[in-house]
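Help wanted!
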Amino acid sequence: MRNKINKYDIALIVVIVVINVLILIYGAFNTTDKGKKIAYVYSDNRLVGEYTLTEDYEKEFKVEVDSGYNTLHIQGGSVWIQDATCPDKICIHQGKISKDGEIIVCLPNRLMVQIEDNSETENETDIIVK
Amino acid sequence: MNKLQRYVFLSLLTAGALILNIIEGMIPLPYIAPGAKLGLSNIVTLSVIVVLGFKDALLVVVIRCILLMLVATNPITFIYSIVSGIVSTIVMSMGLRYLKKLSLIGVSVLGAMAHNTSQITVAAMLFSTPNIYYYLPILSLISIFTGCFVGYTSIFVTDNLDKTLLKLKREI
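Answered by r_m:
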């Protein structure tokens, strides 16, 4: 009886698919693509760099830890990992990120790059300064 | 089955799971999301839960993780694999015991989901940021496919294991 797929399995699968697709759609609609985007680079849980992403900003740099390094490349408003010493190269495959909330992680080298949209906090600061 | 036979049987299964784990790393898969993989060793975990019970399955999982760390990976990967292995074993055996309507495929999908969720939770703790949950929806969708595959395979494996055990019992 447990050896065949039945309607309860299908119900479970459908429920999981619906929930996750809804979350994905919600996430896709919620990302804003305007304002100032900042890439935060964390290595070993410490913030090692902040880079404001604009169309004409270009930079390539290495983040090193004991186990190796990751080479990050920033160009045309997006960030990606050019080269890494980790065995699986998952961080390179994660490709370019440019939207608010997107992240790149490299588990072996404990590296994380995260993009945040700072337009809201920017406005608040303006009001305080005036 | 006496104690010695039981241990030999369990070690054979552990070795099988370890080999599946290593072979899995050699299969080139299209990149979809970080950490997405087939989870072939879950076939062994699920089959042992069905045939021999929760405690033996936990033993197989823990030994498999330790051996995998010694053979192929590093201590950091070990943390991920052991936590998610134990959590998914617990979830799958709970599913088998209490959700009697589900077939092995449904149980295996539950296990795959538990595996992903716990792995991401460990990553969130190690990186001390909840942002990594960003990948959970896409990983869950992938885990449905791998979970179905693992469950379907375990159905065949458990059939064969049951026959093998019966044969063992008759010969003693």
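OP: Thanks! One thing I noticed: Residues 121-128 of chain A have pLDDT under 50 and may be disordered.
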